[in-house]
Amino acid sequence: MAIVKTPFRTFGYITMRTTYDAEHVVDPCPENRLWTNLFTKGGFRNCVTDAASTPPNHSTEDTNPGSWYTPEDFQEFYGNLTFDALAGTELWCLCGENNNNWMPYVDKWVLASGETTTLPVNTKLFFCTGSITVDGTTHTDPVQIHAKTTTINVTANEDSYGILFL
Amino acid sequence: MNTITIKIIAWEADGQSLVCKYASDETASSNPDDYNSVAFQPELMWPHATTADAVLEEAARAGISICEEIKMSEDLANDPTQLAVYSGLSGTEQTFNVSDITPTPSTEGDQVDPDTVEV
Fold it and tell me: What is the CATH number of domain A107-165?
């Protein structure tokens, strides 16, 4: 069993990547959690709060690649959330506690396999997971992409996920 | 809580303890004599307080949490629903897996500075 958290420096903020083995997890969730989450691999199943949580014994939805949760979504519950993580689950989190209790303005970025998109000038994209080709170079590791002065064409070689810093 | 009343009942020389009683504007009674006494060791707890006034103020400060507990106890006594929850547990025996009721541990790796593509 292992949960591994790796912080990435992304456009001035810390984005935490968390990976899970197939395991049953107890996750303490404080009230008003200032988190934004993007699932990029695997997911959580059988998500439910425990008897001492608010609301108690409350089931929440399964998560899958592309699932996106904002601080507003985290108003749904607090206490302890238990779930079964699928093997290889990967989750990216902008956590207020890692960023001076501030949540940057962000949005989910998804590009399906085979699709191409153009990032307009001023786009700041943190590519998290998948495979993309940018100006003839293929990226499979996380990378910051900043269209500072010109647009950037991006092609997905497989379903790809990232976080837009607005 | 806006006010707290402290009454020093005694100095116990053997235990080097001040025996105190408390009440507040939120407790059912404002008379400290209506509540149990507690003992503090001023030399251990407040070595910086050497005058009577300073010790009295520290003892009063320590009584704030005492009064909060008194109020919680009084509130519970007036809450039959919650009392039923507690009394209903009498006789219950249940075994928990510790891993089910404690946070799952995690490890944190070194910070990564990802490559940047900037045009």
Answer: 2.60.120.10
Span A19-46, average pLDDT: 96
Interface residue ranges in chain A relative to chain B, Cβ cutoff 8 Å: 1-10, 14, 18, 23-28, 50, 80, 82, 126, 134-135, 137, 139, 141-150, 152
Confidence of residue A1 (pLDDT cuts 50, 70, 90): low
CB nearest A4 (choices: B102, B106, B119): B106
- Asked if the domains A3-103 and A107-165 are classified in one and the same CATH topology, the answer is yes
Which chain A residues are closer than 8 Å to B113 by Cβ?
8-9
- Answer whether residue B19 is part of any domain: yes
Tell me how many residue pairs between chain A and chain B have CB atoms under 8 A apart: 87
Taking CA–CA distances from B100, the nearest residue in chain A reads A26
What are the domain boundaries of chain A? Answer: 3-103, 107-165
Average pLDDT, chain A: 96
Which residue on chain B is closest to A5 by alpha carbon? B108
For B47-80, write each residue's pLDDT tens digit: 999 999 999 999 999 999 999 999 999 999 999 9
- The answer to whether the CB of A20 falls within 8 A of the CB of A89 is yes
CA distance A19 to A32: 23
- CA atoms of A137 and A142, how far apart (whole Å): 13
Find chain A residues with C-beta within 8 A of B96's C-beta.
none
The reply to whether CATH 2.60.120.10 applies to domain A3-103 is: yes
* 8 Å CB contact of B111 and A4: no
pLDDT tens, position by position, B2-37: 999 999 999 999 999 999 999 999 999 999 999 999
pLDDT number for residue B28: 98
Alpha-carbon dihedral sign for residues A103, A107, A113, A119 = negative
Ranges of beta strands (E only) in A11-66 are 13-20, 23-29, 35-41, 44-49
Q: Which domain holds residue B69?
A: 4-83
Whether B27 is in a domain gets the answer yes
- Residue B40 CB neighbours (<10 A): 18
Of B112, B115, B116, the CB nearest to A7: B112
User: Distance (Å) from the C-alpha of residue B99 to the closest C-alpha of chain A?
Assistant: 8
Number of separate domains in chain B = 1
